[in-house]
Write a structure and sequence with these properties.
This protein is an all-alpha fold and about 290 residues long. The chain is about 70% helix and about 0% strand. The chain is built from 12 helices and no strands. Helix 8 runs antiparallel to helix 9, helix 8 packs across helix 10 and helix 10 packs antiparallel against helix 12.
Length: about 290
């Protein structure tokens, strides 16, 4: 998931080219003289061996003939293993942040107290830190990144909704285990090869388009959870057998109201996403709509 330019940037400033910490990529012109460019980026270096290793990374990052052996170089020098280890640590950190919140339904008398807000804050910070770390080098487009981004957005919008709606916080017994399940799926999928990043530094329009699109996903997710809570309440009422879960969920009328409000807001945000998407597409290709995603 780390771009070649990013590995190049990290390797120049460190004796061993292992990307433990993300830094902005260095932009270089492949047309420049190879030795001149190498001297400009690396300089004399602390030792001939370290300079040789760094030069190999530069060759693989910049010149196509050397790029064929780039994967083998990463494997031989342990960089691939270090990247996988870093990804595993990040996934475990994000999952551990979601785990306590997933058992909110186990509380005997769930209330919107300090414990609730603390669990919500932790459940948001874990996925958010995953995003900050993994998106530092480039804007990722793979499924794992999309899931973690959606989880963080859903937690953020749920917190905002719970603060202003007296019944919305009661969706937590369904929402938070769902987010944990999505997090597990994201962690499993992170072992697959990442898709090509959009850009090292996406433009403001791209960021706005992605933000409103992810907000739409989060709002629709919350609406689906509210609808599920209403179905469970209805079934328990008809069977006259309420459970500990249904007692912790909002009333049926509150669920219906939330579904309508959330879908109305999601539709408005979706229109904004379509407008920003068409603007970007027209600026790039001259066409308003292309059904490519």
């Amino acid at each position: 998931s780390v771009s070649r330019a990013h590995i190049l940037n990290h390797s120049i400033g460190n004796p061993d080219p292992i990307p433990h910490v993300y830094r902005p990529p260095i932009l270089v012109d492949p047309a420049d003289d190879r030795e001149k460019l190498f001297q400009t980026l690396v300089g004399q270096g602390p030792s001939a061996n370290q300079r040789y290793r760094r030069k190999k990374v530069i060759d693989a990052c910049i010149w196509p003939p050397a790029a064929a052996s780039f994967g083998a170089y990463l494997e031989d020098n342990g960089i691939t293993a270090a990247m996988a280890e870093t990804s595993t640590v990040l996934n475990l950190m994000a999952l551990s942040a979601l785990l306590p919140a997933a058992f909110i339904g186990a509380r005997k008398a769930p209330v919107r107290d300090a414990v609730f807000w603390l669990l919500l804050a932790v459940a948001f910070v874990g996925p958010f830190m995953w995003i900050i770390t993994e998106f530092a080098a480039a804007w990722r487009t793979d499924l794992s990144a999309a899931l973690w981004l959606s989880i963080a957005a859903t937690m953020a919008i749920f917190g905002f909704t719970a603060a202003f709606d007296r019944d919305a916080w009661q969706l937590a017994p369904i929402l938070w285990p769902l987010m944990l399940g999505l997090g597990i799926l994201a962690a499993i999928w992170s072992g697959h090869a990442a898709s090509k990043p959009i850009a090292d530094q996406p433009s403001g329009w791209i960021v706005l388009h992605i933000a409103v699109s992810v907000a739409t996903y989060a709002l629709v997710t919350l609406a689906a959870v509210a609808a599920s809570a209403g179905i469970l309440q209805e079934r328990a009422m008809k069977a006259k057998k309420p459970t500990s879960l249904t007692r912790a969920l909002p009333p049926i009328t509150a669920c219906d109201d939330m579904v309508i409000r959330l879908l109305a807001i999601a539709e408005t945000v979706l229109v904004l996403g379509l407008i920003t998407g068409m603007t970007l597409n027209y600026a790039q290709s001259g066409q308003l709509i292309e059904f490519d995603h």
